[in-house]
Amino acid sequence: MAFSPNPLSLSVPDPAFESWLRDSGYLELLDHRTSAAAASTSASVSSSAATPSAASDDVVSSITAGFFASLLSRLVTVSSLLTINPFSKLSADDFSGDTPPWTTGFFGNCESYSFPSSSQQARMRVHENIKRFSRNYATLFIVFFACALYQMPLALVGLLASLALWELFKYCSDTWKFDRHPSIRKFSIGIGQCATAVLLTFLNVQMALFSALAVSYSVMILHAGFRKLTPSKKLSRGR
């Protein structure tokens, strides 16, 4: 892409800069080099710890300290996934494109996943993967919500009753011409909203929705954080 002329060359808008990074493949290159640098660092630490020494206790203590330091670093990285706002860079345009293929694009293979080496890499993966696989995550939420309704028949009845209630309101509005009487229309809408809230609350529709949101959010965060960045051209080519 080409940036608009800027005589002073002071700044580039963040969306344009991120789009340029995405189109040029620098995000994937940055993700790959970050993982490679972390792997080489861990390998050098392991080789230095494996060097024979006169004091075996020092070797054991250094290995133990390195293990707990690595474990603590990974726990901090995983916990940082919970502090990320995954929808901060998501826009409506991300849902307008084609859905990436599920096998080659969304799931990939074993080599498509790796543990993020830092919180910054995890944040970059989450933001970028959610933009690329937004339609896949939306489909997963629909599937999880359908499963929740299947396991909670009362919630399914409540959802269908709410839809039937608003269809009845639409039929009555068209039949009795509520548009000509704004006060009656406003009063009827208030009654319908109260009745819908009662149905959704007492028939546990909100519980089914909450469970589907919790499961889909957990799957989305873990998948986006551990999924390596793949060039967008490969995703479209795999279709």
Give the SSE layout.
Elements: H1 14-24, H2 26-49, H3 56-80, H4 102-107, H5 119-132, H6 134-151, H7 153-176, H8 182-202, H9 205-226, H10 232-237
Helix pairs in contact: 5-9, 6-9, 7-8, 7-9
Family: Belongs to the PRA1 family.
GO cellular component, one term: endoplasmic reticulum
Function: May be involved in both secretory and endocytic intracellular trafficking in the endosomal/prevacuolar compartments.
What key attributes describe this structure?
10 helices, transmembrane, single chain, transport, 72% helix, 239 residues, mainly alpha
Describe the model.
Helix 5 (119-132) crosses helix 9, helix 6 packs antiparallel against helix 9 and helix 7 packs antiparallel against helix 8. The protein contains ten helices and no strands. The model is unreliable at 49-55 (pLDDT under 50). Helices cover 72% and strands 0% of the residues.
- Kindly state the number of beta strands: 0
Task: Provide the helix percentage.
Answer: over 70%
Instruction: Tell me, rounded to a whole number, the average pLDDT.
Output: 79
Helix and strand string, N-terminal first?
HHHHHHHHHH
Q: How many H/I helical runs?
A: 10
Write down the Rg: 26 Å
First-to-last CA distance:
24 Å
Q: How much of the sequence is in beta strands?
A: under 5%
Q: State the major sheet.
A: none
Mass-distribution shape:
elongated
Supply the helix-strand structural class.
mainly alpha
* Low-confidence regions: 49-55
Function: May be involved in both secretory and endocytic intracellular trafficking in the endosomal/prevacuolar compartments.
GO cellular component, one term: endoplasmic reticulum
Subcellular location: Endomembrane system; Membrane
Main location: membrane
